[in-house]
Amino acid sequence: MDTMRWQDDHLLLLDQTKLPLTEEYIECWDHIILCDAIKKLKVRGAPAIGAAAAFGVALAALNYTGEDRDEFAADVKKAIADLGKTRPTAVNLFWALRRMEAILEDIRTYSVKEQQERLVAEAKAIFDEDRAMNEQMGQYGLELIPESAGILTHCNAGALATAGFGTALGVIRAAHQAGKEISVFADETRPLLQGARLTAWELMQDGIPVTLITDSMAAYVMKQKLVDLVIVGADRITANGDVANKIGTYGVALAAKAHGIPFYVAAPVSTFDLSLESGLQIPIEERDTEEVRRVGDSITAPPGVPVYNPAFDVTPAELVTAFITDRGVFRPPYLETLRAMAETK
Ligand SMILES: CSC[C@H]1O[C@H](OP(=O)(O)O)[C@H](O)[C@@H]1O
């Protein structure tokens, strides 16, 4: 199963809202389809959103049929602006869009056709690099995973959230492939159930022992000493080590602290936003209130009941035991170590 597949002139995108029951791919021929898919979480997960947006920019470039460089650049920049308005929290989206826009800086040097080829190549590079970073992260994370460890994770930071292999689930996959006989507790992750629908599905596909629990069970499972470590993904990490991730992550981190359990965050360098000093500056997406009043098509709350639906929360750096990245494992104090990490190539 691939999150997305580039097909020379269009993108096949796995519709994650259909999982786990059906694997259905959407044919994407323009960036507007990608904007809709990102907004509706048909593709989701910080690195996957970045890669999908990059291919969206490539599609906008290919859809320009003229030869005027300035008109071409204006069309592509409009697509970049459209894609940048889809979801505010995952910094990988903006990191990828900046990489694509940087290709346009040589507009005078290359013909429109050459620019189209360069933009497609950059989108494919973003996608390929992400998968390689995840596999590298998995190897770095191995040192933190004891034999037969019980691991708790929240939401989905797996192959479905990336270009492949996954971040938090990438470390779990690497441990499983190394024969460590780990087992996983997956939080279902209300309201959109990425843990139940995606993480449980991914781990079962790989034959990795997984037990699905409700979000409210996480602390109790830790109290029963069934969890040796927690590992989650991230959507944006600031210079001081604060972490924006799926709503509920902060509560898991507090419970882990209370039970003396290590809390790890796995993320590629593209998830670090060192322009922000702390998590107070991270824009937190608020989503449609209907997502909380329903589970799928079933209404589970009084119609019109007031709802608060932030899609992410911020875990302060002091609750993070270490960051597992494609550049290595980083421990506190984060301000210095994360800046040094970002500067390494
Ligand atoms: C590997 S990043 C995955 C990250 O993204 C998820 O959010 P969403 O499903 O809303 O895109 C969640 O925060 C995961 O940890």
Automatic annotation (TrEMBL):
Binding site for substrate: R44, G45, A46, R87, Q194, N245, K246
Keywords: Amino-acid biosynthesis, Isomerase, Methionine biosynthesis
EC category name: isomerase
Site (Transition state stabilizer): C155
Pathway in which this enzyme or protein is active: Amino-acid biosynthesis; L-methionine biosynthesis via salvage pathway; L-methionine from S-methyl-5-thio-alpha-D-ribose 1-phosphate: step 1/6
Pfam families: IF-2B (PF01008)
GO biological process: L-methionine salvage from methylthioadenosine
Keyword Cytoplasm carried by entry: no
Entry-linked SUPFAM superfamilies: NagB/RpiA/CoA transferase-like
EC identifiers of the protein: 5.3.1.23
Swiss-Prot/TrEMBL catalytic activity: 5-(methylsulfanyl)-alpha-D-ribose 1-phosphate = 5-(methylsulfanyl)-D-ribulose 1-phosphate
Active site, per annotation: D235 (proton donor)
InterPro entries linked to this entry: IF-2B-related, IF-M1Pi, IF_2B-like_C, Initiation_fac_2B_a/b/d, M1Pi_N, NagB/RpiA_transferase-like
Keyword check for 4Fe-4S: no
One MF term in the entry's GO annotations: S-methyl-5-thioribose-1-phosphate isomerase activity
Function recorded in the entry: Catalyzes the interconversion of methylthioribose-1-phosphate (MTR-1-P) into methylthioribulose-1-phosphate (MTRu-1-P).
Family, as annotated: Belongs to the EIF-2B alpha/beta/delta subunits family. MtnA subfamily.
The protein, known as: Methylthioribose-1-phosphate isomerase
Species this chain originates from: Heliomicrobium undosum
